Amino acid sequence: MAKKTREEWKTYQDVFDQFTIRTLWELSSRGFLDGLKSPVSLGKEANVFTAEKGKDLLCAKIYRLETADFNSMYKYIRNDPRFSGLQHQRRKVIFAWCQREYRNLLKCKDAGISCPKPVIFKNNVLLMELIGIPAAPRLKEKPPASPGKFFKLVLENMKKLHKLKLVHADLSEYNILNHQEKPVFIDFSHATPLDTPNADELIKRDIKNICRYFKKLGVETTEKKIWDYINI
Question: In this predicted model, what pLDDT tens digit does every residue of 16-72 receive, in sequence order?
Fold first, then answer.
C-alpha cells in the first residue's frame, strides 16, 4: 500500500478529530504506517484498527480525545508513581494514559508475558503488533476448547506479571485474546506497579474475574488457590 499524503489522511475527518489525523499523518511520514485498513473494535474511549505498513499489518489503538473518560483515567493513573505530578487536564491525561500502555506492554513483552509487542506511541495513538490475521477474538467471544489447559497458561502469565511487580488491573475474559488456543493479554493501560496504594484491591479484582470465568467453564479453582500460585 502506498503511503498516504497529508491530504489523503484528511479523508478520515468524519472518523477522527483534526489533531488525531495530524498525529496519524506524522507517524505515517516517519514510516511507521501507511494507512488504516479496517476496524477491530470501536469503543467510547478508544478505537482499534488494523494498520498497514508495506505488506505487513499492525494494530492501531486510537484514544478518543473528546469522549474518553479522562476523569476515570486520572483516578487510576494519579496513584502510579511513574506519573506523579500529572496535571488533571484532558489531553495530558489521555496522552499519559497512552504512554502508560506503551510502557507497560514494553516491560511485559521483555519479561516474556504473552502480550502484543508495542511499536511506538505518539499523543493519543499507540501502534503495536497485530495478534492473528484476522485479528484474534477475545476470550469472551471464543471460549477455549480446553478450559483447564488455557487456565494454567493464564495463571503462568499472571505469575510473571506479579514477579514483574505489576498488576494488570483490568483482567477478565474481555481483555484476554484466544489466539490459537493460547492466551494473549491486552489492554494494559490500567496496569500499575504493586507499590501503588490500591494495588491489592486491583489484584484481588483480577483474581476474582479470572476465577469466576473459568469456574463457569468447569475448572475447579478458588480465588485463594490463584493467589497462592501467582504469589509463590
Answer: 889 999 999 999 999 999 999 999 998 888 999 999 999 999 999 999 999 899 999
Q: Which domains does the chain have, with CATH numbers?
A: 6-129 (3.30.200.20), 147-230 (1.10.510.10)
- Write down the residue that cell numbers 497529508 correspond to: 6
Rounded to whole angstroms, the Cα distance separating 74 from 95 reads: 11
Q: How many CA atoms lie within 13 A of 48 on its CB side?
A: 15
For residue 27, the one-letter residue type is L
Closest CA to 115 of 37, 59, 76, 34: 59
Tens of pLDDT along 74-97? 998 998 989 989 999 999 999 999
CB contact at 8 A, 36 and 60: yes
The structure's pTM equals 0.93
Is 159 in contact with 172 (CB distance < 8 Å)?
Answer: no
Which of 14, 17, 56, 187 is an active site residue?
A: 187
pLDDT value at 13 more than 70: no
- Annotated active-site residue in 170, 195, 206, 228: 170
The total number of residues shown for the chain amounts to 232
Q: How many CB atoms lie within 10 A of CB 188?
A: 30
Cβ contacts of 74 within 8 Å, gap of 6 or more = 86, 88, 93
Q: Has 170 been annotated as catalytic? A: yes
